[in-house]
Fold this protein.
Amino acid sequence: MKRVRTIKGDIDPAELGFTYTHEHLICFPPPIVMNEDADFELPHVDKAVEELRIFYEAGGRCLVEGTAIDYGRDVHALLEISRQTPVHIVFTTGFNKGRFHPDWVVQASVEALRDLMIREIEEGVDGTGARPGVLKAGAWYNVITDREEKVLRAVGQAHVATGAPVWLHTEAGTMALEQLDILEQEGVDLTRVAVGHCDRNADLWLHKEIARRGAYVGYDGPGKIKYYPDSVRVELIKGMLDAGYGDQLLISGDMGRRSYLTSYGGGPGFGYILKKFIPRLLAEGLSRDDVDRIWVENPARWLAF
Ligand SMILES: [Zn+2]
């Protein structure tokens, strides 16, 4: 039977409940990020626990922690957080866009990266026994660099070996179809793949094309008004539902900055989608069933392997 791999162990997908499919609880980004903007560092267990309390009290039950190995993933901290929250946490193995890859990733072969990810999924990370439940790769703005293609192929091969779901970083929503092409060459069933940050490129035709290929379309910008108003996201969601792709939408907040999180004194925080965005979607014509599909049924189907 298919199970969802949480940090505490495998569970029945029916147990998941309301799920955010791309968030960050703890990360220690590489120097290239920190030298530009330390806002991206999320170092505090207690603040993550507080943010999860807000999420849980609003109805949240499961969260996918999207921090990859090369973005300062901290499994010990995630385990500590998981002991202090009732929220199911699924964490990630794999890598980001190439500018975050450390030298050892740049030097490694496809096979070495594949084997590392398979070992983490099957045996656990850093001797903790905690096993990741999602594979991650990504590409750059309008380009897939050689090192990114290598990681994509390694992730594809690790998926074929384990069945674990795949999440793809797109830079401003570009190079989605091209990343799917590479995974497909590695034999990946695209119905097991989620393409992240699609709404950064608010192009409904492209989103329908990603869905037509079988993949999930990930929106993770609700509340990020600096890019454009949420009205644009509401129209994209309605457009996907009208096109019959409601079973392939995954919507989360990607609150990967201190300034986004209530517990650090910022906003909109983990409460936003549950307390403000979903009520707005319902007021603008979505049904309760649509909401359950997007935040309960689709995540459970994507995550189970
Ligand atoms: Zn993220």
Q: What stands out?
A: The pocket of zinc ion is lined by residues 22, 24, 66, 254, 256 (CB under 6 Å). The longest strand covers residues 19-23. The chain has a mean pLDDT of 98. The domain at 4-303 is CATH 3.20.20.140 (TIM Barrel).
